[in-house]
Amino acid sequence: MVSSHQRDWSECLGYVTFCYNASVHSSTGYSPFFLITGREAVWNADFLLPDSQKEDRPLPEYVRNVRERFRLAYAVVQKALQRSAEAASTWYNRKVRPHKFSVEEKVRMYYPRRFRGRTPKWQNFFENTSQVLAKLHDATYVVKLDHGGVRKIFHTDKLKLIK
Asked: Which of 11, 4, 77 is nearest to 38 (CA)?
């Protein structure tokens, strides 16, 4: 869509955004436009076709119908996002070697902060120490930071035991 000189990308941005928002997303099963407005987007071709869905309804009935569509869409989206999250979790955990940590053990947490002018090759990304508070399941633990006492949930591959 963009010319070879690539200076006209901003002219296409509105069209690309509309197409993205009007497309059905695999994670939710609905388009973002529908989830925000309660109706499908109207394309240019829709203006040329005969209007077969035009209905004259009183406002309270229309509001009830829109609310019901939102309620049904919300239920479907919640299930779809749960399935999507489980699939992502399964994909992420497939190569993880589970580590066993006990409650009260001291661990170091992965903190990938980069500093300008320093090579990441020589940086230690496991600097912050914490204490294991609880095991949620085989792949995640609740830890409490030594500085500040903040509790966070970490994946097992982001923790190292302090020996």
From this structure: 77
Nearest 5 degrees, angle CA 121-CA 123-CA 128? 150
Residues 21-33 pLDDT 10s: 999 988 888 899 9
| Strand ranges (E), 2-81 | none
- Concatenated DSSP letters of 141-158: EEEEETTT--EEEEEGGG
Specify the pairing of strand 159-161 against strand 129-137. Answer: unpaired
**Distance of alpha carbon 151 from alpha carbon 163, whole angstroms:** 22
Q: Which residues are within 8 A (CB) of 51 and not within 5 positions of it... i.e. 6 or more apart?
A: none
With 0.70 as the threshold, say if the pTM is over it. Answer: no
- Residue 48 DSSP SS3: helix
CA angle 73, 22, 91 (to 5 degrees): 70
Q: Summarize pLDDT for 39-81 with one digit per residue, the tens.
A: 888 877 676 777 655 667 787 887 788 888 888 888 999 999 9
Domain coordinates in residue numbering, the chain: 9-93, 106-161
Q: Which CATH number fits domain 106-161: 2.30.30, 3.10.350, 1.10.10, 3.30.1560?
A: 2.30.30
Query: What is the Cβ-side half-sphere exposure of residue 134, based on CA atoms within 13 angstroms?
Result: 6
